[in-house]
Amino acid sequence: MSDTRRRVKVYTLNEDRQWDDRGTGHVSSTYVEELKGMSLLVRAESDGSLLLESKINPNTAYQKQQDTLIVWSEAENYDLALSFQEKAGCDEIWEKFVQGKDPSVEVTQDLIDESEEERFEEMPETSHLIDLPTCELNKLEEIADLITSVLSSPIRREKLALALENEGYIKKLLQLFRACENLENTEGLHHLYEIIRGILFLNKATLFEVMFSDECIMDVVGCLEYDPALAQPKRHREFLTKTAKFKEVIPITDSELRQKIHQTYRVQYIQDIILPTPSVFEENFLSTLTSFIFFNKVEIVSMLQEDEKFLSEVFAQLTDEATDDDKRRELVNFFKEFCAFSQTLQPQNRDAFFKTLAKLGILPALEIVMGMDDLQVRSAATDIFSYLVEFSPSMVREFVMQEAQQSDDDILLINVVIEQMICDTDPELGGAVQLMGLLRTLIDPENMLATTNKTEKSEFLNFFYDHCMHVLTAPLLTNTSEDKCEKGRVSYLSAYDFYNIVGSNKNNTICPDNYQTAQLLALILELLTFCVEHHTYHIKNYIMNKDLLRRVLVLMNSKHTFLALCALRFMRRIIGLKDEFYNRYITKGNLFEPVINALLDNGTRYNLLNSAVIELFEFIRVEDIKSLTAHIVENFYKALESIEYVQTFKGLKTKYEQEKDRQNQKLNSVPSILRSNRFRRDAKALEEEEEMWFNDDEEEEGKAVVAPVEKSKPEDDFPDSYEKFMETKKAKESEDKENLPKRTSPGGFKFTFSHSASAANGTNSTNSKSVVAQPPPASSNGSSSKTTNLAASVTATKGSLVGLVDYPDDEEEDEEEETSPRKRPRLGS
Length: 829
Description:
Elements: H1 2-5, E1 7-13, E2 19-32, E3 37-44, E4 50-55, E5 63-65, E6 69-75, E7 78-84, H2 87-101, H3 114-121, H4 140-150, H5 154-166, H6 169-183, H7 186-200, H8 205-211, H9 217-223, H10 236-243, H11 255-274, H12 287-306, H13 308-319, H14 325-342, H15 347-360, H16 362-369, H17 375-391, H18 393-404, H19 413-422, H20 430-442, H21 456-467, H22 469-479, E8 490-492, E9 500-503, E10 510-512, H23 515-534, H24 537-546, H25 548-553, H26 561-576, H27 580-588, H28 593-602, H29 608-623, H30 626-640, H31 648-678, H32 683-706, H33 717-727, H34 733-761, H35 768-773, H36 779-789, H37 791-796, H38 801-804, H39 810-828
Antiparallel strand pairs: 1-2, 1-7, 2-3, 3-4, 5-6, 6-7, 8-9, 9-10
GO biological process, one term: gluconeogenesis
Family: Belongs to the SMEK family.
GO molecular function, one term: protein phosphatase activator activity
């Protein structure tokens, strides 16, 4: 029994003035040596960990609220609350421990000025309460001045609150209000406004319970109508009694529940509408009012949940085809409000709440109402759906995957959501933005569960890309297709009657000219960019199969810069992955062209588009993505070399040339190794001749590097040099033949198969002139065969073809040899 009586929930007030549930446990009071005093301890019922350890301080203002709550502040911005399961437990802790240490004489929530504290200590105990003036019309000004004067002193606030409570003073004041209103005593009404507002700022729950009772609350609202700063009084009571209607979608039979709902609505109205927004210094003045509303909402949700018949009846009417539209609208609005109130529940109770809704069929019901024509109903259904997704995306995912086994793609819940996003009629697409955020949550792998039996991530993503992705990308693919319009004409696509498309003058492709369509495509691109970042092979396969990046880059021609930036951001995320699979797709498709065109069209304007394009190429340079660097330099450097206000493109050229030199050095290093192995046994006999030959060879290499495209010596010189060199090696011929295959296989591979490797990978010559302006020269085949025929003899010599003979195709061959090592892994894959 004692365990149940002492069972509590611990709450703390967060920065947004909302109560956070810290856990459930059992409260006790004991002496804590470290704190040097009696303290309240709460240990978690799950694992016995310490949820709360708070010293009972006689200078702390403890407040008992609604029979089961004890609330107090431990620091200026740190409020705590204990919510007891039973009233008896709250009374026991309050009487035995808290009240005994808090005699209501010198309670305070804030630091007290020392002189003020001493002054009150000198007062006799019999005069601890403030003497209130008699409650009469001619004393209203005096009462208002008294209440205003005590607000700056925490001690005097407490003393005044006790005096008001003990003497039943509030009800007497409200009687005077009715008299002043009957007499049209404007001055008295202005004083009563100051008095009632000041009493609210005393922040005492016991006073709130009197003021917000059915008997008093409308008179309190009436007092707050007569703000002296206003020329005419507000008509809050008229709004609450005549304009605001209490709608019962299903009759509520519990009178206590009805009273609690009325009270909560009116108190919320006082806080949000009547009272001015508190300043930074007044935020804590109404913390108890916020708590009062919070715990009222908790009680309302709990009472409705306990009524088993009520929710069943609501769902029955919501899903009944015979229910008229007005009634269905009220039912959906009720659920929206109900879900909003449920946010006040502690996690385990909120878990039970949403599971109850799921069992009753909230998701199939939402599927129906989200497809209705009524904008208010769709909006309310979207809000309810957002509560469900935020609470448990896994629950929603499980439902839609089960649904897919029984229904067509068109009526799947996620596709209904996507269609609502696409068809949002709001010019600013407010609903579409909200739905896009929910879709992102549903497809986010970070909140997907992985278990031993099944992996939610793979199952759901397979489902999404099979059944839903085509619906999401339909507007994008429709608006970027090349066969939907003629050059220079506006095109209207029947699939989406609000798409206004104009043709591009460059590529006969189209891009949206309608602002609302551009906004929608920007949202879709944002979601696809998220997929690139968080999904792996699913989105990669989809991009390749649909050639999606090419279609997206059509939007670089849009007159709406924000849409062009979204397209660029999509490409930037792909390149940011540094995935060679994507890189090959980009280079083979020549997909940098629309980006560079956009940069050049932008001209000298220094804007976000300019900066974003520059950043894209700067990333490639800094990360040294070799395949993209080579592609850019070889194909576009002439167009970009004039851009000198940043060093990005010169830096790319430098990186490209450094890599080219590095590849040449690798090629040159192979014969030198062979050379050292070949002659290591009798270096003395051949030392002088070998040194002379290599020196000559290096000089020839130097000349070739300086002018690689010019023809050097005639080919007739090659046999003479070769024969001279071979005569000096004749004595070692047999030994060299044994070792030659092992030593020369890497060099032989590079020289012999560089063309075939490039051909297998579909690479062109890296000569920038021939790539852009013309196909590779016909002589490349001849040079390839020539290289093949001479492979054995070349590898037996110094090894650099440029050094021995500089025939016209050398540059092309060298560059293909450079490409070969990078492409070779693909041959084996």
